[in-house]
Design brief:
Length: 210
Amino acid sequence: MSVLTGGKLKLIQAALRLINQSRSLTSLGLRELAREAGLNPNTFYRHFKNLDEFGLQVLSYIAEDMKSGVRELRQMAESSEQASHDTVTFVYHYFLANPAATTVAVRELHGPSPLLRRALESQLDASAREMAEDIIERRLVSAVPPETIHEISRMTIRYILFRAMDYIEKPGQREAIQQETERFINRQFRGAMLDGVSEQALAALLQSRS
């Protein structure tokens, strides 16, 4: 969880309230932001040099708030299936409770600010790296090489973000979206387990199950 306090925290929380009203981070005006936070506009520059620096802090606030909970769940998982289920459940529920976080992540990933795009890409990569490290440390998919686990983790983080808006906006499909996301993750790892299996062994396995 973030330890931000005072005016800096008020400004970030004000931004998330405004974004929650279908606004993008880069469209916020300084006076509007300060008014929503109940602060003098000059207060902004006591904490941030410009709106880009402010945007970086907002992205960091969201990432830290979410990642701590995800890591704790993964480190308690006893299998890759449990890890994927717990991670997907936590992240989708977090986005549902914090729709502004989803809006920021989805919009700024393709937004007009190169600085924020790079920062978000970096945070997605960091989340994927932590996911892979947790899986490797717990030996949840020991038959899969570490580099492949990192590759699948990168795809997984982006897939979850890609489906997050659908999860929020389509209540009747939430259970199906969650199950689909879990299947996507599990299939990636199961497929990777077969990469090192010879064609003869794979054919024998398929024949035995037919």
